[in-house]
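Look at one record.

>
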Amino acid sequence: MTAQELPVGTGNAVLATVRNHIGHLTLNRPAGLNALSLDMVRILQKQLDAWAQDDEVYAVVLRGSGDKAFCAGGDIRSLYDSHKNGLTVHLDFFVEEYALDLAIHRYRKPVLALMDGYVLGGGMGLAQGAELRVVTERSRLAMPEVAIGYFPDVGGSYFLSRVQGELGVYLGVTGVQIRAADALYCGLADWYLNSEVLPQLDQQLDSLLWNDNALKDLQNLLAKNAVQQLPDAPLEKLRPVIDHFFSQPNVQSIIEQLREVTVANSHDWAMSTAALMESRSPLAMSVTLEMLRRGRHLPLEACFALELHLDRQWFKRGDLIEGVRALIVDKDKNPQWNPPTVQALSAEHVQSFFNGHEG
Protein backbone atom coordinates (compact mmCIF):
# COMPACT_ATOMS: atom_id res chain seq x y z
CA MET A 1 0.00 0.00 0.00
CA THR A 2 1.48 3.34 -1.00
CA ALA A 3 1.49 6.40 1.23
CA GLN A 4 -1.28 8.04 -0.76
CA GLU A 5 -3.66 5.13 -0.33
CA LEU A 6 -6.42 5.44 2.21
CA PRO A 7 -7.56 2.04 3.50
CA VAL A 8 -11.32 1.83 3.72
CA GLY A 9 -12.00 -1.91 3.66
CA THR A 10 -10.80 -4.69 5.94
CA GLY A 11 -11.92 -7.91 4.25
CA ASN A 12 -8.89 -9.74 2.93
CA ALA A 13 -10.91 -11.28 0.08
CA VAL A 14 -11.74 -7.78 -1.20
CA LEU A 15 -9.29 -4.89 -0.97
CA ALA A 16 -10.74 -1.39 -0.96
CA THR A 17 -8.75 1.84 -1.15
CA VAL A 18 -9.30 5.42 -2.30
CA ARG A 19 -6.63 7.22 -4.32
CA ASN A 20 -7.07 10.52 -6.12
CA HIS A 21 -10.86 10.45 -5.71
CA ILE A 22 -11.08 6.93 -7.18
CA GLY A 23 -12.38 4.00 -5.19
CA HIS A 24 -10.35 0.90 -6.06
CA LEU A 25 -11.97 -2.48 -5.42
CA THR A 26 -9.76 -5.54 -5.88
CA LEU A 27 -11.05 -9.11 -5.71
CA ASN A 28 -8.29 -10.77 -3.73
CA ARG A 29 -8.52 -14.54 -4.06
CA PRO A 30 -5.92 -15.06 -6.81
CA ALA A 31 -5.36 -18.75 -5.97
CA GLY A 32 -9.10 -19.29 -6.54
CA LEU A 33 -9.14 -17.11 -9.67
CA ASN A 34 -10.95 -14.47 -7.60
CA ALA A 35 -14.15 -16.52 -7.45
CA LEU A 36 -16.94 -14.77 -5.56
CA SER A 37 -18.16 -15.89 -2.17
CA LEU A 38 -21.24 -14.53 -0.41
CA ASP A 39 -19.00 -12.57 1.97
CA MET A 40 -17.22 -10.95 -0.98
CA VAL A 41 -20.55 -9.98 -2.56
CA ARG A 42 -21.56 -8.33 0.72
CA ILE A 43 -18.27 -6.44 1.08
CA LEU A 44 -18.51 -5.17 -2.50
CA GLN A 45 -22.12 -4.05 -2.03
CA LYS A 46 -21.38 -2.27 1.24
CA GLN A 47 -18.38 -0.46 -0.21
CA LEU A 48 -20.17 0.62 -3.37
CA ASP A 49 -23.10 1.89 -1.31
CA ALA A 50 -20.73 3.95 0.83
CA TRP A 51 -18.85 5.41 -2.13
CA ALA A 52 -22.10 6.28 -3.91
CA GLN A 53 -22.82 8.70 -1.04
CA ASP A 54 -19.25 10.01 -0.74
CA ASP A 55 -18.76 13.24 -2.70
CA GLU A 56 -14.98 12.79 -2.50
CA VAL A 57 -15.17 9.60 -4.60
CA TYR A 58 -15.68 10.43 -8.28
CA ALA A 59 -15.34 6.97 -9.85
CA VAL A 60 -14.70 3.30 -9.08
CA VAL A 61 -12.12 0.89 -10.54
CA LEU A 62 -12.87 -2.83 -10.26
CA ARG A 63 -10.17 -5.47 -10.81
CA GLY A 64 -8.90 -8.88 -9.76
CA SER A 65 -5.58 -9.57 -8.06
CA GLY A 66 -2.89 -11.56 -9.83
CA ASP A 67 -2.49 -11.96 -13.59
CA LYS A 68 -4.73 -14.98 -14.15
CA ALA A 69 -8.27 -13.72 -13.61
CA PHE A 70 -10.50 -10.74 -13.08
CA CYS A 71 -13.08 -13.14 -11.64
CA ALA A 72 -13.79 -16.74 -12.66
CA GLY A 73 -17.37 -16.66 -11.37
CA GLY A 74 -19.13 -17.67 -8.19
CA ASP A 75 -17.67 -20.11 -5.70
CA ILE A 76 -19.82 -22.95 -7.01
CA ARG A 77 -18.43 -25.55 -4.61
CA SER A 78 -19.63 -23.59 -1.60
CA LEU A 79 -23.12 -23.35 -3.14
CA TYR A 80 -23.13 -27.10 -3.82
CA ASP A 81 -22.15 -27.78 -0.20
CA SER A 82 -24.86 -25.42 1.06
CA HIS A 83 -27.55 -27.25 -0.89
CA LYS A 84 -26.28 -30.70 0.09
CA ASN A 85 -26.17 -29.73 3.78
CA GLY A 86 -29.61 -28.15 3.83
CA LEU A 87 -28.28 -24.62 4.35
CA THR A 88 -29.41 -21.37 2.70
CA VAL A 89 -26.12 -19.91 1.46
CA HIS A 90 -26.90 -20.92 -2.13
CA LEU A 91 -30.28 -19.20 -1.96
CA ASP A 92 -28.93 -16.02 -0.37
CA PHE A 93 -25.96 -15.90 -2.73
CA PHE A 94 -27.92 -15.47 -5.94
CA VAL A 95 -30.34 -12.91 -4.50
CA GLU A 96 -27.46 -10.76 -3.21
CA GLU A 97 -25.18 -11.33 -6.22
CA TYR A 98 -27.90 -10.23 -8.64
CA ALA A 99 -28.63 -7.18 -6.48
CA LEU A 100 -24.93 -6.26 -6.58
CA ASP A 101 -24.76 -6.69 -10.37
CA LEU A 102 -27.87 -4.56 -10.81
CA ALA A 103 -26.38 -1.91 -8.52
CA ILE A 104 -23.31 -1.70 -10.77
CA HIS A 105 -25.51 -1.31 -13.86
CA ARG A 106 -27.36 1.52 -12.10
CA TYR A 107 -24.39 3.07 -10.28
CA ARG A 108 -24.44 6.87 -10.16
CA LYS A 109 -20.67 7.17 -10.72
CA PRO A 110 -18.60 5.70 -13.55
CA VAL A 111 -17.22 2.21 -12.95
CA LEU A 112 -14.09 1.07 -14.81
CA ALA A 113 -13.72 -2.73 -14.95
CA LEU A 114 -10.23 -4.03 -15.76
CA MET A 115 -11.17 -7.41 -17.27
CA ASP A 116 -7.66 -8.86 -17.34
CA GLY A 117 -7.44 -12.68 -17.43
CA TYR A 118 -10.48 -14.93 -16.99
CA VAL A 119 -13.86 -13.18 -16.84
CA LEU A 120 -16.34 -15.99 -16.39
CA GLY A 121 -19.93 -16.19 -15.16
CA GLY A 122 -20.17 -14.04 -12.06
CA GLY A 123 -17.15 -12.08 -13.27
CA MET A 124 -19.13 -11.11 -16.34
CA GLY A 125 -21.99 -10.12 -14.06
CA LEU A 126 -19.75 -7.64 -12.26
CA ALA A 127 -18.07 -6.26 -15.37
CA GLN A 128 -20.98 -5.93 -17.78
CA GLY A 129 -22.66 -3.29 -15.64
CA ALA A 130 -19.57 -1.08 -15.76
CA GLU A 131 -19.59 1.90 -18.11
CA LEU A 132 -15.96 1.32 -19.06
CA ARG A 133 -14.96 -2.30 -19.73
CA VAL A 134 -11.31 -2.90 -20.56
CA VAL A 135 -9.87 -6.15 -21.94
CA THR A 136 -6.26 -7.23 -22.52
CA GLU A 137 -4.49 -9.91 -24.55
CA ARG A 138 -4.93 -12.19 -21.52
CA SER A 139 -8.70 -11.74 -21.33
CA ARG A 140 -10.90 -14.81 -21.71
CA LEU A 141 -14.60 -14.02 -21.48
CA ALA A 142 -17.38 -16.60 -21.21
CA MET A 143 -20.71 -17.49 -19.73
CA PRO A 144 -19.83 -21.20 -19.34
CA GLU A 145 -22.70 -22.23 -17.06
CA VAL A 146 -24.18 -24.87 -19.40
CA ALA A 147 -21.01 -26.94 -18.89
CA ILE A 148 -22.04 -27.53 -15.27
CA GLY A 149 -25.75 -27.87 -15.99
CA TYR A 150 -26.71 -24.28 -15.20
CA PHE A 151 -27.80 -21.27 -17.27
CA PRO A 152 -26.04 -17.91 -17.89
CA ASP A 153 -27.39 -15.73 -15.10
CA VAL A 154 -26.00 -12.54 -13.44
CA GLY A 155 -27.80 -10.47 -16.08
CA GLY A 156 -26.81 -12.74 -18.97
CA SER A 157 -30.41 -12.79 -20.17
CA TYR A 158 -29.99 -9.04 -20.72
CA PHE A 159 -26.44 -8.52 -22.00
CA LEU A 160 -26.13 -11.71 -24.06
CA SER A 161 -29.54 -11.26 -25.66
CA ARG A 162 -28.49 -7.80 -26.85
CA VAL A 163 -25.35 -8.92 -28.67
CA GLN A 164 -25.80 -8.47 -32.42
CA GLY A 165 -27.52 -11.22 -34.38
CA GLU A 166 -27.42 -14.65 -32.75
CA LEU A 167 -23.91 -14.27 -31.33
CA GLY A 168 -25.13 -13.89 -27.75
CA VAL A 169 -27.32 -16.97 -28.11
CA TYR A 170 -24.30 -18.86 -29.42
CA LEU A 171 -22.16 -17.75 -26.48
CA GLY A 172 -24.84 -18.61 -23.93
CA VAL A 173 -25.96 -21.96 -25.33
CA THR A 174 -22.43 -23.29 -25.97
CA GLY A 175 -20.53 -21.59 -23.16
CA VAL A 176 -17.46 -20.97 -25.36
CA GLN A 177 -14.73 -18.51 -24.38
CA ILE A 178 -13.85 -15.48 -26.45
CA ARG A 179 -10.80 -13.21 -26.51
CA ALA A 180 -10.38 -9.46 -26.70
CA ALA A 181 -11.16 -8.90 -30.39
CA ASP A 182 -14.43 -10.82 -30.16
CA ALA A 183 -15.33 -9.13 -26.87
CA LEU A 184 -15.05 -5.74 -28.57
CA TYR A 185 -16.90 -6.95 -31.67
CA CYS A 186 -19.75 -8.34 -29.55
CA GLY A 187 -20.03 -5.18 -27.48
CA LEU A 188 -19.03 -7.02 -24.31
CA ALA A 189 -15.99 -4.76 -23.87
CA ASP A 190 -15.25 -1.14 -24.76
CA TRP A 191 -11.47 -0.79 -24.77
CA TYR A 192 -8.38 -2.93 -25.39
CA LEU A 193 -4.95 -2.34 -23.97
CA ASN A 194 -1.90 -4.53 -23.48
CA SER A 195 -1.56 -5.88 -19.96
CA GLU A 196 1.92 -4.35 -19.75
CA VAL A 197 0.25 -0.93 -19.82
CA LEU A 198 -1.86 -1.59 -16.70
CA PRO A 199 0.78 -0.26 -14.22
CA GLN A 200 1.12 2.87 -16.36
CA LEU A 201 -2.66 3.28 -16.39
CA ASP A 202 -2.68 3.05 -12.60
CA GLN A 203 -0.06 5.80 -12.37
CA GLN A 204 -2.10 8.00 -14.68
CA LEU A 205 -5.25 7.37 -12.65
CA ASP A 206 -3.35 8.42 -9.53
CA SER A 207 -2.35 11.73 -11.12
CA LEU A 208 -5.48 12.41 -13.18
CA LEU A 209 -6.63 16.01 -13.10
CA TRP A 210 -10.41 16.00 -12.74
CA ASN A 211 -12.79 18.28 -14.60
CA ASP A 212 -16.56 18.48 -14.31
CA ASN A 213 -17.31 15.11 -15.91
CA ALA A 214 -15.61 12.07 -14.38
CA LEU A 215 -16.75 9.73 -17.16
CA LYS A 216 -15.27 11.95 -19.87
CA ASP A 217 -12.05 12.31 -17.89
CA LEU A 218 -11.69 8.53 -17.71
CA GLN A 219 -12.60 8.10 -21.38
CA ASN A 220 -9.96 10.65 -22.38
CA LEU A 221 -7.38 8.82 -20.29
CA LEU A 222 -8.27 5.46 -21.87
CA ALA A 223 -8.08 6.99 -25.34
CA LYS A 224 -4.39 7.71 -24.72
CA ASN A 225 -3.63 4.10 -23.75
CA ALA A 226 -6.19 1.87 -25.44
CA VAL A 227 -8.10 1.20 -28.66
CA GLN A 228 -11.77 0.40 -29.21
CA GLN A 229 -11.42 -2.02 -32.13
CA LEU A 230 -9.12 -4.89 -33.00
CA PRO A 231 -8.74 -6.53 -36.42
CA ASP A 232 -9.56 -10.15 -37.22
CA ALA A 233 -12.33 -10.90 -34.73
CA PRO A 234 -13.11 -14.60 -35.40
CA LEU A 235 -16.82 -14.12 -34.66
CA GLU A 236 -17.09 -11.41 -37.29
CA LYS A 237 -16.24 -13.98 -39.96
CA LEU A 238 -18.52 -16.59 -38.39
CA ARG A 239 -21.41 -14.20 -37.89
CA PRO A 240 -23.53 -15.24 -40.93
CA VAL A 241 -23.02 -18.91 -40.07
CA ILE A 242 -23.89 -18.44 -36.40
CA ASP A 243 -26.93 -16.34 -37.32
CA HIS A 244 -28.19 -19.22 -39.47
CA PHE A 245 -27.67 -22.08 -37.04
CA PHE A 246 -28.60 -20.35 -33.80
CA SER A 247 -31.86 -18.92 -35.08
CA GLN A 248 -33.32 -22.43 -35.26
CA PRO A 249 -36.42 -23.01 -33.10
CA ASN A 250 -34.82 -25.27 -30.48
CA VAL A 251 -31.54 -26.85 -29.41
CA GLN A 252 -32.28 -30.13 -31.14
CA SER A 253 -32.75 -28.29 -34.43
CA ILE A 254 -29.53 -26.35 -33.93
CA ILE A 255 -27.50 -29.52 -33.41
CA GLU A 256 -29.18 -31.29 -36.34
CA GLN A 257 -28.46 -28.34 -38.62
CA LEU A 258 -24.84 -28.18 -37.46
CA ARG A 259 -24.46 -31.87 -38.26
CA GLU A 260 -26.31 -31.93 -41.59
CA VAL A 261 -26.04 -28.52 -43.27
CA THR A 262 -22.84 -26.90 -44.52
CA VAL A 263 -22.83 -23.10 -44.62
CA ALA A 264 -19.87 -21.39 -46.29
CA ASN A 265 -16.58 -22.97 -45.14
CA SER A 266 -17.81 -23.76 -41.66
CA HIS A 267 -17.93 -27.58 -41.71
CA ASP A 268 -15.15 -28.20 -39.17
CA TRP A 269 -16.43 -25.47 -36.87
CA ALA A 270 -19.98 -26.85 -37.13
CA MET A 271 -18.88 -30.39 -36.27
CA SER A 272 -16.87 -29.29 -33.25
CA THR A 273 -19.70 -27.02 -32.08
CA ALA A 274 -22.22 -29.86 -32.35
CA ALA A 275 -19.90 -32.17 -30.40
CA LEU A 276 -19.44 -29.53 -27.71
CA MET A 277 -23.18 -29.03 -27.38
CA GLU A 278 -23.74 -32.77 -27.10
CA SER A 279 -21.52 -32.74 -24.00
CA ARG A 280 -23.57 -29.98 -22.35
CA SER A 281 -26.72 -30.34 -20.28
CA PRO A 282 -29.68 -30.57 -22.71
CA LEU A 283 -31.96 -28.98 -20.12
CA ALA A 284 -29.56 -26.12 -19.38
CA MET A 285 -29.03 -25.34 -23.06
CA SER A 286 -32.74 -25.43 -23.81
CA VAL A 287 -33.74 -23.24 -20.87
CA THR A 288 -30.91 -20.86 -21.82
CA LEU A 289 -32.20 -20.56 -25.38
CA GLU A 290 -35.72 -19.76 -24.17
CA MET A 291 -34.42 -17.37 -21.51
CA LEU A 292 -32.31 -15.39 -23.99
CA ARG A 293 -35.17 -15.09 -26.46
CA ARG A 294 -37.42 -13.78 -23.72
CA GLY A 295 -34.66 -11.51 -22.41
CA ARG A 296 -34.46 -9.61 -25.69
CA HIS A 297 -37.82 -8.04 -24.90
CA LEU A 298 -37.36 -7.43 -21.18
CA PRO A 299 -35.83 -4.46 -19.35
CA LEU A 300 -32.82 -5.06 -17.12
CA GLU A 301 -34.65 -5.48 -13.81
CA ALA A 302 -37.09 -7.94 -15.39
CA CYS A 303 -34.18 -9.99 -16.74
CA PHE A 304 -32.73 -10.36 -13.25
CA ALA A 305 -36.18 -11.28 -11.93
CA LEU A 306 -36.53 -13.96 -14.61
CA GLU A 307 -33.13 -15.41 -13.75
CA LEU A 308 -34.03 -15.51 -10.06
CA HIS A 309 -37.31 -17.26 -10.93
CA LEU A 310 -35.33 -19.94 -12.77
CA ASP A 311 -32.66 -20.14 -10.09
CA ARG A 312 -35.16 -20.84 -7.32
CA GLN A 313 -36.18 -24.02 -9.14
CA TRP A 314 -32.79 -25.06 -10.40
CA PHE A 315 -31.15 -26.75 -7.43
CA LYS A 316 -34.01 -29.25 -7.23
CA ARG A 317 -35.19 -29.47 -10.84
CA GLY A 318 -32.09 -28.58 -12.84
CA ASP A 319 -28.78 -30.25 -13.63
CA LEU A 320 -26.46 -28.04 -11.57
CA ILE A 321 -25.87 -30.40 -8.63
CA GLU A 322 -24.98 -33.25 -10.98
CA GLY A 323 -22.77 -30.99 -13.09
CA VAL A 324 -20.82 -29.75 -10.07
CA ARG A 325 -20.51 -33.31 -8.75
CA ALA A 326 -19.07 -34.59 -12.03
CA LEU A 327 -16.78 -31.69 -12.86
CA ILE A 328 -15.73 -30.24 -9.51
CA VAL A 329 -16.42 -32.68 -6.64
CA ASP A 330 -15.83 -36.21 -7.95
CA LYS A 331 -14.10 -34.95 -11.11
CA ASP A 332 -15.13 -38.00 -13.13
CA LYS A 333 -16.15 -35.62 -15.95
CA ASN A 334 -19.08 -37.89 -16.72
CA PRO A 335 -22.25 -35.99 -15.74
CA GLN A 336 -25.50 -37.91 -15.96
CA TRP A 337 -27.75 -35.21 -17.36
CA ASN A 338 -31.50 -35.48 -16.85
CA PRO A 339 -32.73 -35.98 -19.50
CA PRO A 340 -29.56 -37.35 -21.11
CA THR A 341 -30.27 -36.09 -24.65
CA VAL A 342 -32.03 -33.18 -26.33
CA GLN A 343 -34.27 -35.71 -28.10
CA ALA A 344 -35.61 -36.85 -24.73
CA LEU A 345 -36.43 -33.30 -23.61
CA SER A 346 -39.95 -32.06 -24.27
CA ALA A 347 -40.82 -28.45 -25.04
CA GLU A 348 -43.40 -28.63 -22.25
CA HIS A 349 -40.73 -29.48 -19.68
CA VAL A 350 -38.61 -26.51 -20.79
CA GLN A 351 -41.60 -24.17 -20.64
CA SER A 352 -42.52 -25.40 -17.15
CA PHE A 353 -39.54 -23.54 -15.74
CA PHE A 354 -41.02 -20.28 -16.96
CA ASN A 355 -44.51 -20.92 -15.64
CA GLY A 356 -45.65 -18.36 -13.10
CA HIS A 357 -43.21 -15.70 -14.27
CA GLU A 358 -44.60 -12.48 -15.66
CA GLY A 359 -42.82 -11.08 -18.70
Remarks:
- Residues 232 and 240 are 15 Å apart (CA to CA).
- The first helix runs from residue 38 to 52.
- The beta strands are 6-7, 14-19, 22-27, 59-64, 69-71, 111-115, 118-120, 132-135, 140-142, 191-192.
